[in-house]
Amino acid sequence: MQGLSVPNDWDRRGLPAWTYHSPALFELEKQKLFLTHWQVAGHQNDIPAPGDWLGFELLGERAIVMRGQDGVVRAFHNLCRHRGARVVEGVQGHCRGALVCPFHGWVYNTDGTLRGVSQPATFSNLDKAKFGLKPVELDIFHGFLFIRFHPGPQPKVAELLAPYDADFAAYRSEGLLPVDVPDWTTELPVNWKSIRDVDNEGYHVPLAHPALQDLYGRDYRDIYLPGDLHVSVGQFGDRPARLWSVKQYNAVRPEQDWLPPHLRKAWTYYGLFPNTVFAFTPEGAQFYQDIPLSARRTRLTARTYRQPGEDRATRLARYLASRIDRDTSAEDQQLSIWSDESMLSSAFEGFHLSDLEWGLRRHHDALRRLIPVMTLPEPPIEADVAARNAELIGQTESSG
């Protein structure tokens, strides 16, 4: 995997502080970023049987990803065509042959078509063919399910994530199975970008993450790829560990000889702009996302998977890896809170980034290209943010 080299001379400033607490800017991020970019809803093996479904919600939009009776996976707006009620409630479930709206009893087939309505005589010439569930764009990459609520700048997922293709295939991603534990989720009183800022650089690993430093800190590296893609890799097992979880992990984990040599002793993290990361270890995988709720609040979520035919030693190693990851997550959450609260301080004068934080800068640059009002060092009046952004877009288009 050939990466881009860090420039010798680059602008080491990050986004201005106002972009972390502006409600008007958050509305632009909602419309121009999150709803127009691919989001991961789960894995095809989360819904193995006809009638199985996953729910996904993002900034006022809600989707259902369901396997039809014909075995095909489709995505729809979780929105009854009668009065807009949810046709399912929750993050995951199963329906027996059809979805029934709990409000008035409209019935939908698992392919989204409208089967029938309650008291049909009260509707004049209702054309059922026109009232199926509205589709949501869906794409599948090595088993993972991606949805997009509105058309956007990213290409199809296979093209977008082509640099990850060989590794996902090597990890046998398509055959991953969900683990028998609930999805992990928590909420933080921070802007979503503060969480990404922490996760997009490895400069903090040696001091802030003792377990990761003990496991692979000597050989941690970031790989920057075209298309705003970012891979972080840590090779482990090169020296005795000090911490209990790391020591036990190294002692019990079996060699996964079906993996290519460069992945047998590696933890790898594959970023997807703007808010998703896939994390693979030799024992399993997870994806985690930062789901913005408002300009000042973000939900963190994660879903974990294992390889089929997992033996006891591999299961134990996966458990120990999860302990290390749990501690790392708690450390990153605290760093995100501290970083975010600084954006409200009169003493904050902006970032001055290390070469080891170029990933953070690339993420900011991608945001600026989409929402150029973020280039302004001083905040516009809140009511003028959208108009100022449109003006800057027009200037860019005319100069181009």
UniProtKB/TrEMBL annotation:
- Which keywords are on file for this protein? 2Fe-2S, Dioxygenase, Iron, Iron-sulfur, Metal-binding, Oxidoreductase
Indicate whether Iron-sulfur appears among the record's keywords.
yes
The cofactor named in the record is: Fe cation
What region holds the Rieske domain? 38-147
Question: Is Iron included in the keywords of this UniProt record?
Answer: yes
Q: Can you name one GO molecular function term for this protein?
A: 2 iron, 2 sulfur cluster binding
Pfam families per record: Rieske, Ring_hydroxyl_A
InterPro entries cross-referenced by the UniProt entry: Rieske_2Fe-2S (IPR017941), Rieske_2Fe-2S_sf (IPR036922), Ring_hydroxy_dOase_asu_C_dom (IPR015879), Rng_hydr_dOase-A (IPR001663)
| PANTHER family, A to Z | CHOLINE MONOOXYGENASE, CHLOROPLASTIC (PTHR43756)
Indicate what this protein is called per its UniProt record: Aromatic ring-hydroxylating dioxygenase subunit alpha
